[in-house]
């Protein structure tokens, strides 16, 4: 193997550790240590106590450990609780008993609790167990006989491992990085084979068959891989011992072995195919005279350059978007923390729709009580996820459009808004149907038409039923009474958005940039106690983080008292969600940086292979032109223009596919073009000098 191939292969094995780590994060989040399979309880036909006793009995009779997965009520996005029905004490102890062996901060953290701690939580939902196959089927059958309907929602081991890798790569945004790595492997091996063509020719001259030569190349790669893997493995073992005291060491090692096995299979296949292609194209006499054609290198170099330019452009563009989102989210985080702790909750998606609607009525009653105490904040905007919202003109202030906002009195107390006299606006009228419309001084449209629009929309909200919105049922209680106040111009309203659980900072918005505040919108102050927001709509607002609460304990106790606490998927500190989204984006950005570094290395390698092949193909012509005084640009105009056109085509293709527009992306494209031109000129000068020196030496 050529030295470049060896270095590339070591890099591939090292980054195989990164791939295994990303997959392990997903595995640990979805299949906790000490578990093997999953099932889902969708229906319980027996009483709660009977169902819990059934789970205990089945775990004991099947000698299995069954874990109920439950969101933590204060940080469900970052930590889950596992309620253990223990039937196999030895296996439970090996899994850490009630102390979960956390691998890393990103891979999730669990609190193991005894099943006796299950009080208000819904028995339905997700379960994990340490058995699979026939024993899992026996558990499901035994539960169904006791009135607990459960079904297997896991995958076979091979499919499960594939899913862990797929989701790990997706969550860390590693697709471009993997492609760059594969290109680096193929290109470096092709370069190595091209440099060994004399050795191949000599072996053929001494009677070696093509299969034997290919076998030797594959064996050399295998031997080198074994040495490199041993060194990397020893270094990794020391690192894991220091970093996390060997927590889940063997489990992580299983994923690393799979990763390396896949990389090795790809490398061996590439080596076998490429060496066979190069050996098949050898003509012994020309090779021994350094006159062998290098069309294969020429084709590989051009093809790689096309792909890698598009890849680098996409990775850099995505990294800029992430960087902008991180900066904005960091600024928002300061505003969140300045406002004090605020919490969001959402209804469990596993619930049947009718159950959600029934819970909605109880949830509105809970929110009514908390709002009167100033502990429930409403902030509903349409700037992020409504592509149909009108963004300009008078109608942009109408309900549901870009410059419209729905808030309550708690919002006004937290974010003071001033009227034309400078007095703080408040609206502590909690009677039914009462609405205050805050219209900015900058609005110059028809106020009566504006009030009519909001009245119609609020009436439609109020009349929403289980059958759907806008049924216009006869409901004498839905009669919005709108009063109006003008607000001083130049005031901004914080939107309290960007709290999508488990989403990176750039994924919190459908737009290319986050929008954290609105300047001079029309704000309709609609207290929940006005009952103009139907329960079905209110619970959807809660699930989209448009209702926030100041006291998680007051919220959880009232939800528990209403009998619906178990139907909610946890209570999260909104500022923590924003901070976690920044952490996820930085994780993606790390892979962006690694991908760009590797991509640039492949870019340099591709240009080197391309220019080397060009100089070999055109060495006589270029030498004659040099002797006759042709300048550098004239001698190499064809390859330089061709390379430039290929790069431009790759950039245009990438921008079209990725919808990459704007000044930032234009600057990136120019930088990539300048890099391509500069590296091409430098390598042309270097390789041309080497080829000419070789020709003079041979003559």
TrEMBL record:
Protein name per its UniProtKB record: Bacteriocin-associated integral membrane protein
Transmembrane regions listed in the UniProt entry: 7-27, 174-193, 228-246, 252-275, 296-316, 593-615, 636-660, 666-687
Keywords for this protein: Membrane, Transmembrane, Transmembrane helix
Record bears the keyword Membrane: yes
Origin: domain of life: Bacteria
Protein source organism: Parascardovia denticolens DSM 10105 = JCM 12538
């Amino acid at each position: 193997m050529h030295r470049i191939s060896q270095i590339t292969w070591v890099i591939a094995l090292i980054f195989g550790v990164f791939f295994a780590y990303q997959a392990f994060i997903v595995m640990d989040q979805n299949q906790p240590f000490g578990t093997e399979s999953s099932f889902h309880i969708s229906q319980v036909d027996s009483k709660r106590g009977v169902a819990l006793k059934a789970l205990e009995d089945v775990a004991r009779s099947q000698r299995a450990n069954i874990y109920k997965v439950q969101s933590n009520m204060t940080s469900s996005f970052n930590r889950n609780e596992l309620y253990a029905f223990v039937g196999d004490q030895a296996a439970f102890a090996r899994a850490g008993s009630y102390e979960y062996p956390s691998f890393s901060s990103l891979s999730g953290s669990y609190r193991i609790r005894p099943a006796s701690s299950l009080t208000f939580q819904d028995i339905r939902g997700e379960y994990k167990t340490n058995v699979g196959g026939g024993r899992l089927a026996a558990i499901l059958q035994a539960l169904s006989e006791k009135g607990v309907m459960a079904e297997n929602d896991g995958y076979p081991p091979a499919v499960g491992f594939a899913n862990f890798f797929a989701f790990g790569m997706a969550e860390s945004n590693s697709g471009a990085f993997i492609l760059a790595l594969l290109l680096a492997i193929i290109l470096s091996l092709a370069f190595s084979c091209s440099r060994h063509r004399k050795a191949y020719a000599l072996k053929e001259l001494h009677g070696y068959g093509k299969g034997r030569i290919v076998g030797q190349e594959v064996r050399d790669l295998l031997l080198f891989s074994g040495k490199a893997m041993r060194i990397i493995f020893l270094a990794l073992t020391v690192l894991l011992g220091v970093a996390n005291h060997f927590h889940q060491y063997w489990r992580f090692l299983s994923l690393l072995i799979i990763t390396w096995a896949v990389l090795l299979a790809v490398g061996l296949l590439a080596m076998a195919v490429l060496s066979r292609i190069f050996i098949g194209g050898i003509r012994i006499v020309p090779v021994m005279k350094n006159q062998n054609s290098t069309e294969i290198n020429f084709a590989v170099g051009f093809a790689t350059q096309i792909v890698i330019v598009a890849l680098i452009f996409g990775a850099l563009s995505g990294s800029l978007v992430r960087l902008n989102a991180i900066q904005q989210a960091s600024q928002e985080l300061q505003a969140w923390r300045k406002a004090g702790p605020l919490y969001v909750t959402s209804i469990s998606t596993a619930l049947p729709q009718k159950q959600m609607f029934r819970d909605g009525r109880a949830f509105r009653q809970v929110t009514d009580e908390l709002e009167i105490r100033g502990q429930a904040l409403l902030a509903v905007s349409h700037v992020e996820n409504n592509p149909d919202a009108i963004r300009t003109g008078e109608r942009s202030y109408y309900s549901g459009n870009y410059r419209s906002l729905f808030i309550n009195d708690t919002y006004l107390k937290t974010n003071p808004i001033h009227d034309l006299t400078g007095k703080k606006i408040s609206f502590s009228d909690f009677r039914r149907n009462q609405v205050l419309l805050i219209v900015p001084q900058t609005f110059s449209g028809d106020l009566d038409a504006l009030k009519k629009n909001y009245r119609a929309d609020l009436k439609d909200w109020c009349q929403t039923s289980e059958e759907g919105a806008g049924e216009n049922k006869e409901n004498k209680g839905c009669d919005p009474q709108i009063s109006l106040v003008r607000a001083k111009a130049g005031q901004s309203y914080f939107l309290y958005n960007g709290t999508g659980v488990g989403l990176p900072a750039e994924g919190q918005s459908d737009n290319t940039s986050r929008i954290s505040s609105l300047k001079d919108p029309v704000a309709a102050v609609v207290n929940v106690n006005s009952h103009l927001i139907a329960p079905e709509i209110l619970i959807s607002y809660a699930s989209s983080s448009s209702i926030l609460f100041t006291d998680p304990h007051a919220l959880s106790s009232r939800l528990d008292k209403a009998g619906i606490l178990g139907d909610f998927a946890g209570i999260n500190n909104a500022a923590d969600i924003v901070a976690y989204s920044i952490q996820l984006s930085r994780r993606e950005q790390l892979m962006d940086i690694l991908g760009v570094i590797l991509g640039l290395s492949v870019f340099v390698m591709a240009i080197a292979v391309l220019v080397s092949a060009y100089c070999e193909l055109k060495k006589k012509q270029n030498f004659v032109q040099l002797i006759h005084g042709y300048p550098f640009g004239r001698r190499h105009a064809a390859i330089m223009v061709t390379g430039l056109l290929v790069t431009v085509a790759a950039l245009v293709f990438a921008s079209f596919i990725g919808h990459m527009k704007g000044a930032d992306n234009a600057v990136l494209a120019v930088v990539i073009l300048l890099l391509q031109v500069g590296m091409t000129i430098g390598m042309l000068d270097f390789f041309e000098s080497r080829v000419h020196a070789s020709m003079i030496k041979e003559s």
